[in-house]
Specification:
- The protein is of the alpha/beta class and about 170 residues long.
- The chain has a single domain (about 5-165), classed as Aconitase, domain 4 (Alpha-Beta Barrel), CATH 3.20.19.10.
- About 30% of the residues lie in helices and about 20% in strands.
- The chain has eight helices and seven strands.
- It has helices spanning about 20, 35, 50, 70-80, 90-100, 110-115, 145-150, 155-165; strands spanning about 5-10, 55-60, 85, 105, 120-125, 130, 135-140.
- It has a seven-stranded mixed β-sheet.
- Helix 4 (about 70-80) links the parallel strand 2 and strand 3.
- Helix 7 packs across helix 8.
Length: about 170
């Protein structure tokens, strides 16, 4: 994973739940991550999956990823190449699922307040900074152990690489 990620902002509000991130109607009908990506956020923002580019960010309010514990809500965003999610706060289970799938999840309420839809933002993981058009905001960067999981593409690939399993 790059130590600096730059992309556009797709901004949403509070309590974006897992059924909105990956619509529940597909939970048992789509299992291929590449097929999941085009349905990401479709009930909230039908243009999201068509517009997002690798490295772009979702910026959201409090409790992003609340709701059920389905992994698909993180998998579909990884499939699109999302640079990460910057939020005021995350649903507890979603936060862990994001890391397990290799999706960066950063909490920074000040950056959320400063960013607007369409802004360009840079997340500097080494410095723990989010650079926005309206200022630079600090955030707690992921610990080295978590960065290794994200860099490996998630927990399963990380463990397999440590055990020498292909």
């Amino acid at each position: 994973m790059k130590k600096r990620i730059t992309g556009r902002v797709f901004k949403y509000g509070d309590d974006v739940n897992t059924d909105v991130i990956f619509p529940g109607k597909y939970t048992y009908t789509i299992s291929d991550p590449e097929e999941m990506g085009p349905h990401a956020m479709e009930d909230l923002d039908p243009e999201f999956a068509k517009s997002v580019k690798p490295g772009d960010f979702i910026v959201a309010g409090k409790n992003f990823g609340c709701g059920s514990s389905r992994e698909q809500a993180a998998v579909c965003l990884v499939a699109l190449g999302l640079g990460g999610v910057i939020a005021r706060s995350f649903g507890r289970i979603y936060f862990r699922n994001a890391l397990n799938q290799g999706l960066l999840a950063a909490e920074c309420p000040e950056a959320v307040d400063a960013l607007e839809n369409g802004d360009e933002v840079t997340l500097d993981l080494e410095r723990g900074e989010i650079v926005t058009p309206r200022g630079v905001f600090g955030f707690p960067p992921p610990p080295a152990e978590v960065m290794h999981i994200i860099e490996a593409g998630g927990l399963v690939p990380f463990v397999k690489s440590r055990l020498g399993i292909s």
